[in-house]
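Hi team,

Filling in the usual template for the complex we talked about on Friday. All components are listed, including any nucleic acid strands or ligand strings, so the model treats them as one assembly.

SUBMITTER: L.P.
PURPOSE: interface mapping
COMPONENTS: two
RESIDUES: 426
SEQUENCES:
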Amino acid sequence: MQPSKIKLSLAIGALCFGASGASMADTFNLTVNTIQDVTITPVQDLDFGESLTTDPGVVCTMAADKPLGATVRSDTTGVFDGSSFGALSVGCIGTTGTPGVYEISGEPGLDVKITIQDEVQTGGDFTFNPAGGGGVAVSYDGDNAATTDTAVPLSLNAPVTVTLANVVGTDPLPAQAGKTYFTVGGTVTVGPTGLTSDTDYVATFNVNVIY
Amino acid sequence: MNNKLKAMAAGLIVLPISLNSFAADAALTGAFKTIKDVTITQVAGHEMVINGLQMSATNSCTVTTPTTGANWPGDTVMLASTGGTALPSSNYGATSGAGCSTGTSVPGIFEIDGAAGASVDIAVQNNASAGGITFVPAGCAIDYDGNADGDLCTALTAGAATITLAAVGDQTVSAGNGQPVAGKSRLVLAGTVTTAIGLSAATAYVVPFDITVTY
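RESULT (copied from the run log):
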């Protein structure tokens, strides 16, 4: 008896379309989510004010180690108590300046490394150390009940690691998910030729943030 | 035959992982301003002259120390609104002492110029000496409060005082008073001169002395 042509055609068709009763291949989708880019955004400009004399060798430091909890969005107000934030050292004229405040945005709950770097100043005979004055970055504790965020001191030209805030409910308000904040005061040192009287100057520095 | 449908486990696909980490760099700036240099200059026409010193050793003359209530040079020349007289008191420059012919001298007036509202330390050299004559200063400098009127003349103590230069807010004053100028203050200086040696009659002796002003 000859093989059924119908069965043969079905078998051929199955071979052509890759399907049979024993196996099947089909295409499905896999979704891969990349983490958010890390960004740096100024929140408050750094300004010493009219606080330096023109004399060679003058050293003026602005403290930035104790910002207010509300300023850096931390619930740990025992650490971030605002005391002496912006205080100018002996050597400055006046008593208070305005430290810089900056926001880092990235993936909630992840760690980032922050490196603050000095630069050669081109605007006058002075140097600027952005880590002078004890600027800090907030490292969130990831605990909705505890107030144990930490103030991690920034280190000139060396990375420090902090944890970004996690989603609300893991890190409570005022923290913002995926963000942290760091402060910069700094030290201005006038060079041997001095500066010009009654003149505005701009100090430059760099910050690098990496996962 | 039961056909079994087997799905390929697509979820086990391993994707290549990049070795490049996510990072950000930011070039940031900070601002500061240098304060206006502080200076002190003689006010023209008010160079200090002490008259009447007699020639024998240990003789001395004292010019009565100006205050806003007496022996006052006047708010006008002092660029102040103290509530004292606008013009010089009748006894401004009064001079007396043991070995001094009572009369009138000319206290020195000096102008400090710097940043408006800044605090300044004043130091007048104590016991400056030349040609056998020693000078012990006494006087006061205008101390501003940043508001209309109410200026004070802060006395020198051992030749030193700390005052605040006039700010913009000091420039509004009541009628009949002197006119403060932002960034300035004036110092009026009297004091005592004593000779250790015999001097020549009708001779002008010069005693240099320093006034230092510092932020």
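MY TAKE: The first helix of chain B runs from residue 75 to 78. Residues 126 and 136 of chain B are 5 Å apart (CA to CA).

Thanks, L.
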